[in-house]
Every structure is written in structure tokens, then in C-alpha cells.
UniProtKB/TrEMBL annotation:
PANTHER family: A-KINASE ANCHOR PROTEIN 14. InterPro entries: AKAP (IPR053084), AKAP_28 (IPR025663). One of its GO terms (cellular component) is cAMP-dependent protein kinase complex. This is AKA14 protein. Pfam families: AKAP28.
Length: 133
């Protein structure tokens, strides 16, 4: 059986607002297979005007708080960009990309399933780095 990548129906360019963008990122995150012990918050960072598109930048910051350590030793960020094309009709859905803070690889939610391991790896590397200092 082929594994289905979960995605959500993205809003159209004409209906897009910064708030709807953030709600939809939360909706996407809710489809990810991540243990409930992970907590995150998301925020809008900035709007970027380009020749043929407008880009809206967001960040979701993840941590693994525990009873013994309610403030995690390290966090992992996932950066999202919602792109509104100036060349496509405004009835077209927005395009969405994301990347992990430790990576330059840009992923599309409809093409790549998010892996919890990525968050673990970022935090593990940060903790190891801090211990070396």
C-alpha cells in the first residue's frame, strides 16, 4: 500500500490574510505524526515583496518540556513560507514551503512527510554543542 502524505486544502491568493496563513500552518502541523509531548508555538515573522510574488514568513518553534524540565534545554524551529504569485490568477491556491532551522533543504508539504526525528536531531545537536562549550 502506498503511503499517503497528508496535506490540507490551502486558501486562494485572494482570500489570504496573515492570520489565515498562520491558522493554515497550524492545520498542517495538526496532520503531522508527532508525539503529543512535543509543544510548539507559531508566529508570523515578515512579509517580503518580490517582483513576481509576495512571500509570508512564519516560524513554528518546538520543544519537549517535561515535569522535571518544564523549560526545554533546546528548541527546534521550522520555517514556513507562503507564496502568493503575482502571475497566477488570484483564485489559485497559495504555495507553501518549509525548511528546518538546521537545513537549507526546502520541502513542500504535499511532496514530503514531516518526520518527528528531524526535531529530535536538531535538539540533540544543540544539546551536544552546548555540552562541548
Amino acid at each position: 500500500s502506498k503511503h499517503v502524505i497528508k496535506n490540507i486544502p490551502w486558501t486562494t491568493a485572494k482570500n489570504f490574510t496573515v492570520e489565515i496563513g498562520q491558522q493554515q500552518i497550524e492545520e498542517l502541523i495538526s496532520t503531522w505524526d508527532i508525539h503529543e509531548s512535543w509543544l510548539h508555538h507559531s508566529e508570523f515573522l515578515e512579509e517580503e515583496e518580490l517582483k513576481d510574488s509576495k512571500r509570508y514568513h512564519y516560524r513554528a518553534c518546538w520543544g519537549l518540556p517535561t515535569r522535571r524540565k518544564p523549560i526545554p534545554r533546546a528548541t527546534a524551529s521550522v520555517y514556513f513560507v507562503i507564496v502568493i504569485s503575482k502571475l497566477k490568477p488570484d483564485t489559485a491556491p497559495v504555495e507553501v514551503f518549509y525548511r528546518l532551522e538546521s537545513s537549507r533543504l526546502i520541502r513542500r508539504p504535499e511532496q514530503c512527510e514531516f518526520r518527528e526525528k528531524w526535531l529530535h536531531d536538531i535538539i540533540e545537536n544543540k544539546v551536544l554543542c552546548a555540552e562541548r562549550l
